[in-house]
Structures are given as structure tokens and as C-alpha cells.
Amino acid sequence: MELCEFIDPDPAWVSQQIHGARIFSPNETPVTIHQQDAGYVIERKVFDRRLTELAADAGAEIMVKARVTGVTSSAENIVNGVTFRYSGREYTCKTKVVIAADGVESQVGRWAGIDTTHQLRDVAICAQYLISNIELIPEYLDFYVGHEKAPRGYLWVFPKGDDIANVGIGIRGSISGKGNKLAIDYLNEFVKRKFPEGKILGLVCGAVPVGYGLPQIVGDGILLIGDAAHHSDPCSGGGIPNAMFSGKYAAEAAIEGINKGDVSEKVLSSYADKWDREKGKNFKRICRIRDCVLKYSDEMYDEYAEVLSKVPGEEMTLSKIFQTLLRHQPSLLLELRHLILAGWV
Ligand SMILES: Cc1cc2nc3c(=O)[nH]c(=O)nc-3n(C[C@H](O)[C@H](O)[C@H](O)COP(=O)(O)OP(=O)(O)OC[C@H]3O[C@@H](n4cnc5c(N)ncnc54)[C@H](O)[C@@H]3O)c2cc1C
Question: Whose CA is nearest to atom 31 of ligand 1?
């Protein structure tokens, strides 16, 4: 599990251990994938606080409620500090290097001259309730797909215990609102139908990058990581492990630059190279596969789910899905060639 490369799982922030997933087609035919110890549903606030504690233990100076308001630059135009507002006063902090981790519409990157804007088609608009008093299988993540239920996206039910789950939706920004329904409208319809007895305990809304990743993630004296660098997975929208990887790679490049006494874009770009090599190169392939799958009609999803639902969950792998679907419909070979080219099957 990717997260475990950075931190040991702790009952304080693990809400639920996960051993597989069920994908429900539009007519709710389930395709089950069993994977022992697949991952965790986490309690985000506790998890984030634990990371903060670890950073503090490692020597970081934490300033809560401090808002960065700008960046400062040297005569050579190298970022060399940030201005911030804290307790009603403005301060300046000189830096050897700035790592901007300020989320999906990074202002810090923009202040340093990096274009961080998103195309609406490259973001998913998300809404998520925490709902109790519902029936679920706690060890499985559930996903619901279909153009009517969640156009260009999916609904999820992520268990956080025996009868409580995060129930959410992400749909593409280009089709949310402006005369179309909003993400929360689709979510409300789903919740009303699926969990009429559920008790809504919380709501989170937000945007998640689902494109190729930002073309420029490094400047003179500055690196962008996580959502600020558009590093969420283009298919699932999951961004927590990717943000941790990009943070690690950026820190390595920053240390290299500081040790050399040169934090120019040229030196720091070892971060961008490593990101591309380790993670980023897959984003384009994932986007291609996702866009290919999104072309299918709801009827096709139901037909393929019917075929795949016969495969036992323990045997389900990407390769097995591919082989099963090809046996059912050989003409799919052309469409799914990206998987072969990517070496995924
Ligand atoms: C509804 C929803 C559900 C999701 N579910 C999942 C999931 O199940 N799994 C998963 O992997 N990912 C999920 N994601 C995506 C995940 O939350 C993000 O990818 C992840 O949080 C990115 O981390 P980050 O540190 O880059 O940015 P963020 O978590 O957005 O953190 C950015 C931080 O910077 C702070 N900040 C911004 N501007 C400034 C400023 N000027 N000065 C000081 N601080 C500033 C913000 O307050 C914030 O605390 C979900 C997202 C949403 C919206």
C-alpha cells in the first residue's frame, strides 16, 4: 500500500481496513474485486494532524492560522521568500526554497509566475457526505458508474465502520452547473434512493485535478507539489498518496539545490524529471483509457458488468478483466490496445 511507504498505519487514523472493491454498473450489477489488505479509509483530520506532529518532531516550525499572501524575489528573479498574514499582522519570511503545497488552485505558484489554472474539463467537482445508519460491507469500497447517475465521473461509498461511510460523487467540471445539474444534486438523488434511513453527519465539497498534471511544476527557487501541481490520479481523483510522493521528490531536489548553493529552475527540475519518470508518465495513459471507457453507453457498461460478475472476486485482475471482455467481444482489442501498449496486461 503506497501510504505505508511514508507512515505506519495507526488505529488513531485508520477508520476501516479495505480488502477489495465492488463496481456497480448503471443497472447495479456488481463486479467484485477482492484484494487482501488493499488499503485504508482514513480519518483525514487525525491523519493530517499526525503528519504535522511528525514534521514538528523532525524539526519543522509549524505556524497555524498563518496565510501566505505573496512571494518575494531577488534581483535575479529567484523566489527568496514569502509574505504572510498572522494574528492580524503582515510578516516576511526569507527562504532558501519555497515548496508550494497550497492545493488545487495554487496562488503561491501564480505569484511566482507559474500558470496554475485548470481547464474545467480537467477538474472533477466533488461533494461528499458522511452518513451513518446505512447498510454496507465494511471491507469493500463501492463505486457506482453510469452517465445518468454520475456523468463523466462516479459515485462512491467508502466505509468508515459497520454502518457509517463517506458517500460522495465527482463529476467533470465542464458539465457541472451552467444549466446542468450540480454534483450535489446527483449525490442527493443517490442518497435518497440508496440510503433513505441514513443520517447525514457532515458534508465536504471541493475540486480535484483529473488532467495530465501541470506542465510547469518548478521555477527559480520554487517547487509545486500535490494538488497545487495537479498531481491527483486522473481516473480515481485520489490525491493523498501522490501528494506525499511529490512532496518527497520535491524535498530531495530542494536539498540538492540548497547543498549546491543553486536553487535555479535548472537544478530544481530534477524534481519534475523524477515525478515524470515515477508517476507522471502514467497520467497520459490513464487519461486515454479513462476517456475510452467513458465513450461506452450505460447499456454497454451493464453488458460488460454482467459478463465480469461471473468472475470470482479473488481471480479478478486487470489482465483477467481484459481477457474476459475480449473473449466476450473481440472487437474491443482495438479500443483496449492502450492497456497492452502500457504493459498493464
Ligand atoms: C470530496 C473529496 C473527497 C476526496 N477523497 C479522496 C480520497 O478518498 N482519497 C484520496 O487520495 N484523495 C481524495 N481527495 C483528494 C485529496 O483530498 C487531495 O488530492 C489532497 O488533499 C491533496 O493534498 P494537498 O496537500 O496537495 O492539498 P490540500 O489537502 O488541498 O491542502 C492544501 C492546504 O493549503 C492551505 N492553503 C491554501 N492556500 C494557502 C495560503 N495562501 N496560505 C497558507 N495555507 C494555504 C489550505 O488551507 C490547505 O490546508 C478528495 C477530495 C475531495 C474534494
Answer: 103
Task: Evaluate whether residue 58 is within a structural domain.
Answer: no
Q: Which residues line ligand 1 (CB under 6 A)?
A: 67-68, 101-103, 107, 126, 128, 168, 204, 206, 208, 226-228, 232, 238-240, 243
Q: How confident is the model at residue 83 (pLDDT cuts 50, 70, 90)?
A: very high
The C-alpha cell that represents 333 in the structure block? 482489442
pLDDT tens figures, 301-324: 999 999 999 999 998 887 888 888
Residue 50 lies in a domain: no
**Among protein residues, the one whose CA lies closest to atom 11 of ligand 1:** 238
What is the total count of domains within the chain? 3
Q: Can you give the pLDDT at residue 341? A: 66
Q: Which of residues 326 and 206 earns the better pLDDT score?
A: 206
Residue 333 alpha carbon to ligand 1 centre in Å: 38
Residue-wise pLDDT for 208-257, tens only, equals 999 999 999 999 999 999 999 999 999 999 999 999 999 999 999 999 99
For the ranges 130-134, 143-147, 292-296, the lowest mean pLDDT is seen at 292-296
Query: Measured between alpha carbons, how far is 208 from 299 in angstroms, rounded to an integer?
Result: 28
Contact 255, 270 (CB under 8 A): no
For atom 9 of ligand 1, which residue has the closest CA?
A: 238
Range of the domain at 219: 63-116+214-292
What DSSP designation does 2 have?
A: G
In this structure, the residue with its CA closest to atom 8 of ligand 1 is 238
Q: Are 124 and 205 members of one domain?
A: yes
Rounded to whole angstroms, the Cα distance separating 172 from 126 reads 9
The closest-lying atom of ligand 1 relative to the alpha carbon of residue 240 is: 11
Are 52 and 62 contacting, i.e. CB atoms less than 8 angstroms apart?
Answer: yes
H or E element that contains 218: strand 218-219
The answer to whether residues 190 and 124 belong to one domain is yes
